[in-house]
Records
---
Amino acid sequence: MSEPCFTLDGEDVPFVPGDTLLQAARRAGHYIPHLCWHPDFRAHGSCRICTVRVNGRMAAACAVQASEGLAVENHTEELDAQRKTLLQMLFIEGNHFCPSCEKSGNCLLQATAYQMGMEGPHFEEFYPDRPVDASHPDILLDFNRCILCELCVRASHEIDGKNVFAIAGHGIGTHLVVNSDSGQLGDTDMALTDRAAGICPVGVILPKRRGFVIPIGERRYDQDSVAEPGRQEAS
Amino acid sequence: MTTTLTPYPAHGPRKLKVATVSLAGCFGCHMSFLDIDERLLELIEHIEFDRSPLTDIKTVGHCDLGLIEGGLCNAENVQVLREFRAHCKTLVAVGACAINGGLPAQRNHLDLGRLLTDVYPQGVPNDPELPLLLNHVHPIHEVVHVDYFLPGCPPSADAFWSFLTDLMAGRTPHLGHGLIHYD
Ligand code: SF4
Ligand code: SF4
């Protein structure tokens, strides 16, 4: 008996029972844009960049179970335009000054925006006031760039067993918090070797004393686009 | 009697008029533009410069294309931007500062009065010649309509070239992988 399949932009994609659309598509070498999804963690479904059309209805590809015969549309003009709008909103809600960001060239948000052809922010900038936390001896936190993907929350909880991070607040006031009495990272047991220290897809959680070590032109997404297999997730 | 017809003078296609300016920027985008090197000779076959630091013309005439580097940090920047918009058929925001405020906008969460007294402890200069500072630095699309964005800090010479050759050929400019950069 042949493997069960769904179609992605008309192409057959095989899946194993329990797969989500995103898992199966990625395994088959397809690129469904995403920011908050990572193969090592359970789906979170917050960024909505992976929204596809499944049998005519919009759904997050990271959260929908694959099933035989589904017709999934991924790279349509409409969906890619909506993804670009979502990305533009993420950019203006934070302070994303790429030329002075250590993550530039290795950043999933930036690379996804390149892929969606985002040339400008389109909307009015928020320029929010989000002070950095430099209290930890080895790790810098620059909240200006947080996209609330919760990957650090999941990594700290599920892999490091530490619960260093959490998301607090509602609506536009939603923000990342550090779980210590002072609210400072320096007062937690976070270590540079923790999974949470390396999972951030953007330039929030950064190792100190290593900035700009790889020259522009040699960074992750200078070489390959985010659509390439092996380049689709935060490093 | 035979009449000799004087041939009608052959005209090449009209050259595009291009103006450029640096608002709250560092001239890095202009320098990168010049980095297209010998391709400038080909470019100059198709365009002529109006107001630009390259010509030292101070006022902008009617132009086909305006390239604007830098964001808005003072009242004069806003005035120059409005003049460009009124005189240029197509307006391009060039570089990170024009597009999202860039480095100058990193003062936006600081108090402007406090910044000035910190920078000028002997007394803040107060001369009518000095344009008034805006409280916040803004990208140019927040004040006028922008037709195209050419990102980068600065955009590479190849990005300039690809963008301009697309525009001159009447195509919508498209920067593919490797040319689209925010840094
Ligand atoms: S986190 Fe990414 S998008 Fe944001 S400033 Fe840094 S490189 Fe740019
Ligand atoms: S700090 Fe990084 S990993 Fe954590 S929520 Fe913000 S963007 Fe995601």
Note: Residues 75-87 of chain B form the longest helix (13 residues).
---
Amino acid sequence: MKPSLLRSKTLALLLAGVVSLSAAGCAEAPTQAPTQADDKKVTLLYTFKTGSLDPNNGSTPLRAGITETLVKLGSDLSLEGWLAEKWEATNETTWVFTIREGVTFHDGTKADAAAVKASFERGIAASEALAGALKIESMEAAGQTLTIKTTEPYPALPSELVNPSASVISVQAEQKMGKEAFNNAPVGTGPFKVKKFEPNVEVQLERYDGYWAGTPKLKEASFKFNEDANVRALALQSNEADIVYNLPAESIDAIKSNKSLRIESVPGLRAHYILYNYQRPLLQDLKVRQAMNYLLDRESIAKDIMLGNAVPANGPFNSKLPFGSKDPADGADLAKAKALLADAGYTAGADGKLLKDGKPLALELITYKGRPELPLIAQMLQSDAAKAGITVTIKTVENVDAYLKDNKDWDMATYSNLTAPRGDGGYFLNSAFTPEGSLNASKISITRLSDMIKQLNATSDTAGRVKLTQEAVSVINQEVPHSYGVYPNIIVGVNNRIEGWTPGGEEYYMLTHTMDVK
Amino acid sequence: MLIVRKRALQLLIVLLLLSVATFTLMKLASGDPVKTILQADELLVTAADEERLRAELGFDRPLIVQYGQWMWKLLQLDLGKSYVKGKPVWQELMERLPATLQLTAGGMAVLLLISVPLGIAAARYPGRWPDLLSRALALVGAAVPGFWLGLMLVYLFAFKLQLLPSMGKGSLTQIILPSFTLGFPLAAVYARLLRAGLLQSLSHDYIRAARGRGLPEWRVVSLHAFRAALLPVVTVFGMGIGSLLGGAVVVETLFSWPGLGSMAVEAIFSRDYPVIQGYVLLTGVFAVTINLLVDLSYSIIDPRIRYEKGVSL
């Protein structure tokens, strides 16, 4: 026997494996980190991947600075012109948009009213959702003027045009390239054009020199996707990415302690809230809903569950929005909750649990893991409700929308929605409080509120819409169909070499022409 | 070629049963893709819009009718279109398959590079350090969850040492970490399997005879004993490769690897039935085909095994 020979062969094999793995690693690794200051390249890492860049069926082309919309949300989240300089309603179903002069698509063709019209026609054919949201009956293009007629009075049209799916693209380019090639490299008007798209992994971009608002400062950019929050955080710390969205709260301290990185935590347009089932007798009692509202500890949710990256909510809309409530958020108040429940006729039994007509006040709370903080909010509410003598049982479901719709016996649910996705309250008020609304699983119907929504749907001037939305919020806060918990912040990790850029609360405009590197 | 014909028939039965089971299970779970189709980016839609689309997609028809329609299309070799993306399912599967094949190949390479040398060394020196090392690795491999191993590798190689990229697909370096995450846990187990097989075959008379003839030890082990020890390893390997091809969901998510596994998870979350069905059928075909290849390979590894009529060992 020659054990030494075998030993050396085995070791050689093992070593060969290890060496070949690490040698391959060393060979190409340096090209991965775009840390040189002069190459003007930025890597942005976002959560949700996409397998297609079809601009009418996804947000990535807009987020990556490839396409733009007629109207956008400004830094204060109010509507402002983008490809459209101005717009006005000439009657209740007619809108006239003036398209900005000097805008060209990446292929050099002019983005005039006729091009925008063709783009919308393409979008409506490509996306059922967009067709339903724009409600366009007909369009006329003359020079830079686009006249849109809607199928019904539709004051929310400018706000709906903020949607990334309403991006303006060159239909002419699509006809030349073919649909499939176009959906991998759409031709828009944005500061960046697609260099290479690796579906579900990365979009490589290069600047568009003919950009209408000035030459983009970056030469190149990479828009990558990764759904794992920990890997995203590590990518920022290893300089593999310069901007990382939706960081896990627990990684924030480590990132803050790194002098080359910073955290940007901006208020978003989302609200986490508790939904009450209006079909359940116990919750038809306003006092019970008000009592639950006082048991929801918003300060603690913001501080302990969201680790300071959220703001206590005082209504459906972030108070930073022009139509958000300016009142302070309700604080947790056990005494007030108990008094309300006593008023409602509940008395404590021998075990401290509340009873009315011999029946206990026991409620089922539905939650889901899609947003990890929601089950924690459910647990906190359960424990605070127990202090008032209310028994709350928590049920975790996989698909909350389907569960709430298909089942009738739930009492409350933790829920989360973008309440003003396009800087207007009309979407949420219509979806959550009208009988036909898609977010109104418990068929909430409040006459006063319904009348206001009808009026809002017929009002096109901005000041009038703001006033009506504020009045609707005030009714919501009196009737308590929902208890709003917090407005979660958007947490973005940024390398300090990035200049001329801050994330917006709308989570839309990520790569911009003003973004620069040191 | 009797076995091939027999297996082709089995394949059809397996696929039929698979499709019925998946179809029924998916429909029993709550939810449908209507929300995903209409609610993209919180567009304003009404419950009536949802009902209309539900009817358009045929979700209001009896389950058996829905299944029948799907099957009728399948017989015409049409897997349908994704509800969510509107793309033909076949195209979607073919777009994702290469990434999964690459990752599977990477995982297999890691598996072989670790398990074969380690298994041989452990069998050759039972109770000594190569054996102890393989035992410790097998324990770690079986105990460590894939997501944790993947994260630790990213932490070490991408963050601390900055040697390898943490994600993406395109360059050779990007496949190393996901391949290792995928291959290592299996490699540890295979090394033990190989060790057991080798120890058994090394005790056989023909090995003693080979040694008696004065053959060098490396030839005895790597040619004679190794071949005999391969049978159980190949069986488990066949089962393993089937599941690898099905897509390693955790690994694909961690490393942004655009393969079949992550596609299936997306489809399940959005209840994109045609994509789920297409995925199940494709992985079913893989699993049965690979098992067939494994069976056929037995007669090459061990010539005593023959698949002729009435003569099988």
Note: The first strand of chain A starts at residue 41 and ends at 46.
---
Amino acid sequence: MKELLDFEAFREGPEAEGLVRRVRELVDGPTALMEVCGTHTVAIGRAGIRSLVPEELRLLSGPGCPVCVTPLGEIDQTIEAARRPDVTVATFGDMMRVPGSESSLERERAAGADVRVVTSALDAVKLASEEPSREIVFIGVGFETTSPTVAAALLEAERRDVPNVSVFPFFKLVPPALEFLVGVPDRALDGFLCPGHVSSIIGSNAYEPVAREAGIPCVVTGFEPLDILAGIVMLLEQVRDVRSGGAARVETQYSRAVRPEGNPTARSLLDETFDTADAEWRGIGAIPASGYVLSQDLMHRDAAAKLGIERPEPAEPEGCICGAIMLGRKLPGDCPLFGTDCTPRDPVGPCMVSSEGSCAAHFRYEHRRST
Amino acid sequence: MKSNDTITLAHGSGGRLMHELVEGLIARVLSNPVLDELDDAADVSGLVEPGRLAVTTDSFVVQPLFFPGGDIGTLAVAGTVNDLAVKGARPVALTLGLIVEEGLAVSDLERALRSVAETAKTAGVVVTAGDTKVVERGCLGGLVLNTAGLGFIPEGVELGAARVRDGDAVVISGTVGDHETAILVAREGFEIDETIESDCAPLHEIAATILTAAPGARAMRDPTRGGLATTLNELSARSGVGIEIEEAAVPVRREVRSVTDILGFDPLFMANEGKVVAVVPADEAERVVEALRTHDLGRDAAVIGRAGGPPGVTLRTRVGGARPLLMLEGVQLPRIC
Ligand code: SF4
Ligand code: SF4
């Protein structure tokens, strides 16, 4: 019997224990580390990592979920597109439930709009060639991880001469956001846990300016719980060095997937398809050179231009503090609406809608409801 | 295509075509002495056993209708048999309501019915009565099945969430997440190397095995929609006793793990159609697992946690962290990258 109930044997025990012990040794005062990637946010919650680290170590969730940072006005544009009778909106599932100013794609679909959930942008090109009489509009959300696949799909549509597919290029770029975050006044940020997937495309070199000029340690980290613990240890070691006068660096915990220069093929795809532009981050505001527009040669695939859809001035939901959360100033629990008026079933702000949003992750993994 | 290859609205009209469909196909495939009477109601007195009567009903809507490891027919019988079995009842009889969509191939209907017949035979239940409706194309995805099940709970068997006690052990009869992952892969056409099969199966023997090995068993559940996490929350809420689960002890197939990782899904929230969660006194847990492992459907059985503490479910993660395991909120959606 003893054996059957002795669960310790199952755990990634010794290794995890060693890392957790090291974290405890290294934290000797209030320290704030930010993970910028939604997948990290979820992994930290899922693995219960906050329950293992000292309270003085705050793990903050940055603007790392592409759904969360898509401005209301852009959501409204996609809804406007879905209302056109000859338009099919193709989207990743996450976007379905994001509330715009007065509706969502899910509600539009229930009301008869043709909205389809796809798992890749190539599906949209396929739909377009199968249904030549309809305009297939793909909602391009995501960071440097998703944008190359959308770029590839657009180039495929060009190559196969499929005219009736277009895209809303709502992509965001991670490094400019980090540079912006370090410039935010009264921020408390000692280090960045940089996203492994994004970095496998753009390379760890992309964070050099943040580390060198702003003096914030960066560690590119994988997504397994042990990766994250190891990444935290590496960050804390750097934080200690920086506090005693050393220089911040970019380090890579996730070296099995990330090279300093990234993935040249994906990067040249991006260069061919997009130009960098200023972009609006929901809850945060405009960040210079942090988004994409279609390159001159592909401008005819821009859904807003093709369908003549302006971006409306939207009204943000009252009381939502997503912006402050994504900037690392507040935690989800600080929001008066958290868990009461705002839940994953009935989300008020975008951070509760997306499964990778910081509020949704906190609700799911950290929050014990009184039953 | 011959007119008899596909279901048309005329098959539901009550006329000759309908008569042919019911007697020529449905009753033929499902044939048994009770059903063969083809009366408006079945006399089931021959099936009555000693014990308390248990009754359940369920409707089955699944896309695609046929998937690796099963189909809507298997699912309809297994689902209902399992609801009876986890209550400690021996399932004896079923009813079957068919709502067929115009345009369904008769061969598909026949295939689903054969699965009903076969699964019923495996589970030792008799399909005693049925009903068939045909509806217009486009509203149902081909076929919807409704079943009601009848079973008898033997004297002395007393199961219920309210009986869970501090210190009890929580046992699962096998890997979690197989059914929903199989459906997802079949529906979305994800390209993966291995086929993931649904675990869809009648669990009457598994339930009986548990009851024999653990006469003191407190509660059994089949973690279908909402998955293991939701079922454990229900058990905790009803009993008022907390449950702590060990993530690393919960069996998950490697293929299921890799698909769910890619999509950002959690196998603990994914539907199963062939698994039982049992709460048993701690000193009976080992016997239950040993007995289950001798059965084909219980090969991966394991003790996954224990009951105790304030209500709510806590997950001990692989790295030793603890976090609340809540019920499934809404639906899981694939993540963006
Ligand atoms: S899109 Fe990339 S950066 Fe964003 S959450 Fe997903 S993995 Fe992380
Ligand atoms: S809890 Fe809801 S309203 Fe509050 S910040 Fe999060 S998403 Fe916005």
Note: Chain A has 16 helices and eleven strands.
---
Amino acid sequence: MPALRWIRRNLVVLVGLLTLAYMILPNIVVMVFSFNKPKGRFNYSWQHFSLDAWKDPCGVADMCGSLSLSLQIAFWATVGATALGTMIAFALVRYRFRARGAINSLIFLPMAMPEVVMAASLLTLFLNMGAQLGFWTILIAHIMFCLSFVVTAVKARVMSMDPRLEEAARDLYAGPVQTFLRVTLPIAAPGIAAGALLAFALSFDDFIITNFNAGSTVTFPMFVWGSAQRGTPVQINVIGTAMFVIAVAVVLVGQLIANRRKKSTR
Amino acid sequence: MTVTQEAPPAPVTGPKVRRPATRKRLVPYWLLLPGILWLLVFFALPLVYQASTSVQTGSLEKGFEVTWHFATYWEALQDYYPQFIRSLLYAGTATILCLLLGYPLAYLIAFKAGRWRNLVLVLVIAPFFTSFLIRTLAWKTILADGGTVVEVLNTLHVLDVTSWLGWTESNRVLATPLAVVCGLTYNFLPFMILPLYTSLERIDGRLHEAAGDLYATPATTFRKVTLPLSMPGVVSGTLLTFIPASGDYVNAELLGSTDTKMVGSVIQTQFLRVLDYPTAAALSFILMAVVLLMVTVYIRRSGTEDLV
């Protein structure tokens, strides 16, 4: 049977596309249901088309407050984790010193541990210290778990860097600061950017660790979690859709710029 | 996402060797100090505190005291072993499903997508940007009772089989193990696909041609060339999927029922609502120990110890 043979030959492509559909499906549902006019408190079944939620995205009490809080935390966590992580990555790749193995494992362990374990243990520390749970404890926790991811992202980039470029800069009488700013940093930048982006996404989306260490502070994921019990406003889907569209747009524009640059340098 | 993959280390540059001044030798330590201190204080120290909490007894009113009461561990295991086993079972199933679903997609992006490669990659990463809780809630709509998905599965008599296996209950998917595993698989798929893709992408396409020239069928080429070369991706992908999945409770809470509770949920309830800190700490420690043990054994067996 030719049809069967065709399926067999393209099995990889077919299964791959099905997986892709599986991954995109919830996003499409979120998008469609952002135009829903729900009956009752929960936005789980389709009723009527409506633009109400889009006209008034902040119309739900406390939602936009939690959103801006999450954005702030994600921003500072990104700054903190990227700075600390980049320094560690450089030290690990560029220098040989004692305790390198131990430090490598210390970096690896937070990624090899279920989040709930880290969340719970951090809470015991804060409880024992009598710390006030809130913005600062969330920020501390976020910097902690983003750090390892930044280190791995930056390390990968710095490792593939040719150290002779820096030697060349020094041979041309560039000082250490000049070498770092004009040679090292620009080459490492894509790695640092990838690490920062990852940190931002991880921090913005984190629920488990935040839930343990937030006290009565409510971040956006915690707001969504709460709304799953109390009733989900359509505006949540609006924010979800907006985030998706903005992210895709940013990536596509970035691609376009990269492509144009590649063409112009050719 | 390439957590456990490392390129060969770059040669160390000269100046540190040439000018062994003390100040220069201290540079790496200064670079490490703030970050490592952060990890020691907010990652390692909390584990010590948690260990001490787990052997305390007392109550919230009277205060907790370290009494080396190890029986807490035993009691916690006795009370909550179903949730433990369930967590490992769900996480394991989701990991296998992620591998089976993710491999073809990673292969597609690496070798077949051609000029569509970047677009497909964007589509894999983009869902990330809609908060995962919102996306998990969307599954409630998709799997709703009497919805299209359930109807189709019913017509195809799939639900009869899964109900017989105990994955679903009569005519519903929501609030059953199947829904939880479906959510877990969905949530952790990108963590499987990205490492797989990076290791597949590194494979030289000429190896496939060479295998073909040597009369290997596509299946043999895959078994003898592609799969072994993609093992680093398989290992880091399964780790990145299994570890977070085993501690996850969001999917179980949103898509499951009380019969599908996972251990993360118990830890959360004990810590934040019941305020029984010793039991919660003991449970969390057992989970950590089990996961670390399984990860170590797995890494040893897959013969890639140097990855960690």
Note: Chain B touches chain A through 96 residues (CB under 8 Å).
